[in-house]
# Entry
Amino acid sequence: MAKTAIITGASAGIGKALAMELAKRGYGLGLLARRMDALEAVASEIRAAHGHRVEVGALDVSRDQDVGPALERLATKLGGVDVVIANAGITAVNRTGAGDFEVDKRVIRTNLLGAMATIDAAVRIFRAQGRGHVVGVSSVSAFRGIPGSGAYSASKAALTNYLDAARIELRNKNVAVTVIHPGFVATEISSNMEKMPFVISAEAAAK
# Structure
């Protein structure tokens, strides 16, 4: 039986590239994102290229109360899920003390609380199944803050620590926990990324 994976933030960037890469490897997919038009286009491309089952659903992870039900719906449609990838995230430039703290709050709501809600919901499913693998997409900025993106860096540092704790909690529950720390990846959420050192494409990052 083919393995299945659910990916948040799957309509573009690393999430879309992961969906394409996992489809090549034979996975059935559940894809979640805010933009249903873009998500449907990704799903159609995968179905046409690989013939795999792809289920989609609208989800804004910053609305954390919606995360659990969205994952459960897709897991039910797929007949269970092997891997959940908490990938959805945003970035923003906001200098400390610049007067727009709402920008930082949006980043934390999406990148940290949204990811935590995704991981928590995934692990509930995995505990019931007796197996599973949860993956969180963090960042190298978890280890060194990026000036101008303090909230982004803080969100990723906190996510890494949350996943580290979860790994210890779940070590005897047959639930694997992986945290990924990408470097600079060229995606539509970040402008001028081509100027950064060692930048790679989303496709290379997904592989």
The longest strand covers residues 28-33. The chain has a mean pLDDT of 91. The helical segments are 13-24, 36-50, 67-78, 101-129, 150-169, 202-206.
